[in-house]
Write a structure and sequence with these properties.
With 360 residues, the chain is of the alpha+beta class. It contains ten helices and 17 strands. The protein has a seven-stranded mixed beta sheet with strand order 1-2-15-8-17-6-5. A four-stranded antiparallel beta sheet has the order 7-16-9-14, covered by helices on one side. It has a two-stranded antiparallel sheet with strand order 3-4. Helix 1 packs parallel to helix 2.
């Protein structure tokens, strides 16, 4: 147990913050950064059979192929519609007004980010700049990409930076917000505006556990490179294995995204063929099943998809969603408040007495 990776990961981050270079695994990373002259390559340890639920759980979540839940570039069970050529009026009528997700396949075609944001280009242009990592540290981008290229762990670190527009404003020139999402009433708040845009970079197995977007906003998420698995439930259906507090501000989920997919992901064999497709309507008290009658329950399949380079997903207000990187990935996302969801935002704010706007 003294070689357990999460232990050495914690020690490394506490000791070096983000100023380290990842090498092979977390134990070796700590030793190599603490003692630069140390050059012994770690070897695999063999020992007699040992039974441990804890070690088996770590091994399983770390080693199971992400292709178990989706093939990169080969969507198999996609149920989120893909659309191209939508006019703003059609998008509003079919998706904004109905609060339903959709994948937009043509709104990123003119983004220079699709060429400029390759890992090689990002390292060349921004490699020495520090970006925020979800482990609470800042890392140089070249060091983080070195980590991405080597790591295989249950809960990898994730570059989840909402400062990039201020620290690296050049990045904002490489993409353009689609006209569908141009209106954002939070822009009226000026410097009081909560966090609303994020640069996302991470290895396979990184991502986001089940949540609803902050402040009851809607969002868009565009993939620059790599592939992401999305699973979504409408506002009135709480996903299995997820337990929100009464006010919705706290959410208890499995310890990792991988654990949720292993233990709770509803495969096609788990949900009857007649299970209904999610809608955006229903009781907010419903759980993972939508009640059909006093003695009868209606199974509800989630919406799901594999999102690839050049594709953007619209995440409607209030929808539960989890995202798993099937491969290393670079993406950008932004939350917004417009005429369609402003009443939901106001209702949410009216229930809060302290720090009403959630800021990440």
């Amino acid at each position: 147990f003294s070689r357990e990776e999460d232990l050495w990961k914690t020690i490394t981050l506490e000791t070096f913050g983000g100023m380290f270079t990842f090498q092979t695994n977390w134990r070796y990373t700590f030793i190599a950064n603490k003692l630069p002259s140390f050059s012994l390559v770690p070897a695999t340890i063999t020992f007699p059979p040992l039974y441990s639920d804890y070690l088996f759980h770590l091994w399983r979540c770390t080693s199971i192929p992400t292709t178990t839940w989706g093939q990169a570039g080969r969507p198999s069970v996609d149920t989120v519609p893909r659309r191209a050529g939508l006019s703003p009026e059609e998008f509003k009528r079919e998706y904004l007004d109905t609060n339903m997700p959709v994948i937009l396949t043509d709104v990123m075609k003119d983004w220079s980010a699709l060429q400029e944001w390759s890992p090689e280009n990002l390292k060349a242009k921004y490699g020495d700049r520090e970006f925020y990592i979800n482990s609470g540290v800042h890392m140089r981008l070249r060091d983080f990409f070195s980590y991405v290229e080597q790591v295989q762990e249950e809960m990898p670190m994730y570059l989840f930076d909402h400062y990039y527009g201020e620290t690296s404003p050049e990045l904002l020139q490489d993409y353009k917000i689609p006209p569908f999402f141009g209106d954002d009433l939070f822009g009226l708040l000026g410097e009081s505006r909560p966090s609303y845009r994020w640069l996302l970079v991470g290895p396979a197995r990184a991502g986001a556990s089940f949540h609803k977007d902050p402040n009851h906003t809607s969002a868009w998420n565009g993939v620059i490179s790599g592939y992401k698995k999305w699973v979504m439930y409408p506002p009135h259906i709480t996903p299995p294995g997820v337990y929100p507090s009464d006010d919705g501000l706290e959410v208890a989920t499995p310890s990792s995204i991988m654990e949720w997919f292993i233990n709770y992901y509803p495969s096609r064999d788990d949900v009857p063929p007649k299970a209904s497709r999610p809608s955006a309507e229903g009781s907010t008290k419903a759980r993972s099943k939508k009640r059909k009658g006093d003695d009868e329950e209606e199974e509800v399949r989630p919406l799901e998809c594999v999102l690839g380079p050049g594709e953007m997903i619209f995440v409607p207000c209030g929808w539960w969603h989890t995202v798993l990187n099937l491969t290393p990935s670079v993406a950008v996302t932004q939350n917004f408040c417009n005429n369609q969801n402003v009443l939901n935002v106001i209702k949410f704010l009216q229930t809060k007495t302290k720090n009403p706007l959630i800021n990440y």
